[in-house]
Amino acid sequence: MSSQSRSTLIRSLSLHAVLIPLAIIWLFPLWMMFVFATMPDYGIFSPQIELMPSTHFFENLSNLQADTDFIRALMISISVAIVYTILSVLLTSMAGWALARYHFIGKSLVVAIILGTITLPYFVVVIPQFIMVAREFKMANTWIALIVPPLFNSLGVLFMRQAFSMMPTELFDAARVEGVKEWQIFLRIALPLARPTMAALAIILFLASWNNYLWPLLINSRPGMLTAPVALGTLIGLTKVSWGGIMAGAVMLTAPILVIFILLQRHFIAGIAAGAIK
């Protein structure tokens, strides 16, 4: 074995020696969540630590469904997350395209305002947003109230602006010379080139909608409109907490996200890398 190959092997072993324990530390809480989801409530707080699954998972799921109609809440969360992701990616892409390729008065001010909104805590805007949607527009307990108010994402706009700024201007100028209209340039040329970035942004936005708890909790009061995270929150009562049901619901919420990330991690990494290189 050459010295270069030996050095590469040593670096690889050293890297794995560091990353494998870190991966175990990161995966251990997920494993314990699954273990707790298979145990009865009294078993979760047992003095004896259990590291292997039990046999009460489907019982906990049955209790969860009986207490919260969790399947309906899960379907609502899936529908809201999908529609929100599609609309938000389209909206942020249009805003990013305008900021990257068009010159207009006040453009720098608009970019500065968008940057400034990133620094604002969400709790600063959620109360005025709730008053406007629920009291002024009277749209509480509606699908529009769940999806539309959070649509604009400042980070997504800047993300897409960066992606469009990296594209060669000559390509779009050549299309304009050929008589291609602006909306066709955006839809048929720019968006396909920004596909990796859009895929990464879609994953981020889907996760944000899937895990959103505060806004659906505020804007919805009807049991039939609860999203899955809010439905899980209803299991925490004043005198009783269904920990087995909560853990089973947490597994049901976490598993699809892990599957989506594993299937789309190549696009996610490519999109992040494309946005980081200029």
Summarize the structure in words.
The chain has 278 residues and is mostly helical. 76% of the residues lie in helices and 0% in strands. The protein is built from 14 helices and no strands. The longest helix has 35 residues, at 3-37.
Summarize the structure.
This protein has 278 residues and is mainly α. It contains 14 helices and no strands.
Number of helices: 14
User: What level of helicity do the residues show?
Assistant: over 70%
Shape: flat
Name the helix and strand elements from N-terminus to C-terminus, one letter apiece. Answer: HHHHHHHHHHHHHH
What fraction of residues sit in β-strands? Answer: under 5%
SS content category: mainly alpha
Uncertain segments are none
Radius of gyration: 24 Å
Average pLDDT taken over every residue: 85
Largest sheet: none
* Count of DSSP strands: 0
Termini Cα gap: 39 Å
Which secondary structure elements does this structure contain, and how are they paired or packed?
Blueprint: H1 3-37, H2 41-44, H3 57-68, H4 70-101, H5 107-119, H6 122-136, H7 143-147, H8 154-165, H9 169-177, H10 182-193, H11 195-211, H12 214-219, H13 228-233, H14 243-276
Helix pairs in contact: 1-14, 3-14, 4-8, 4-11, 5-8, 8-11, 11-14
Notable traits:
278 residues, mainly alpha
